[in-house]
Design brief:
alpha/beta; 6 helices; 135 residues; Rossmann fold; 47% helix
Length: 135
């Protein structure tokens, strides 16, 4: 639900010549990801860590980290309490040498309020500025 909301908000801000797509962690297209100008990566919080599929993604892409170096990324976490997985997500972003846009969006279950939507908008706009600056 949060991923869909981020996608919808981002779509409101992108220029006409930009393309965005959403992928499920179980069926990621690594070739498409390597061509992406920026990434938004999210996960549920499982006992203070990201989901296994997200960890596998980072494990699989680690050898390709030079491709992702400097690319903007921001993350999101859904959780039922503390949301400690955001620390793990930031560590994984650092290991890939991404240009990290903070803060990580952290939402308790499906409670997406106007404050969260405002932060999503800010992160999306930061990402767009970085992408346009590099173009």
């Amino acid at each position: 639900m949060l991923a869909k909301r981020i996608f919808d908000i981002f779509r409101e801000f992108i220029p006409n010549d930009f393309t965005i797509s959403m992928m499920d962690a179980t069926t990621m297209d690594t070739a498409k990801l390597q061509k992406a100008n920026g990434l938004i990566i999210g996960s549920p919080d499982y006992f203070g860590y990201v989901s296994g599929y997200i960890k596998i993604f980072f494990d699989d892409m680690y050898s390709e980290r030079s491709v992702f170096k400097g690319r903007p990324v921001f993350g999101f976490i859904t959780h039922g309490g503390k949301g400690n997985a955001q620390k793990s997500l930031l560590q994984l972003f650092s290991s890939m040498k991404f240009q990290i846009i903070e803060p990580v969006i952290s939402v308790t279950m499906d409670k997406i309020n106007s404050k969260i939507e405002g932060q999503i908008q800010k992160n999306c706009l930061k990402m767009l500025k970085i992408i346009q600056k590099k173009s």
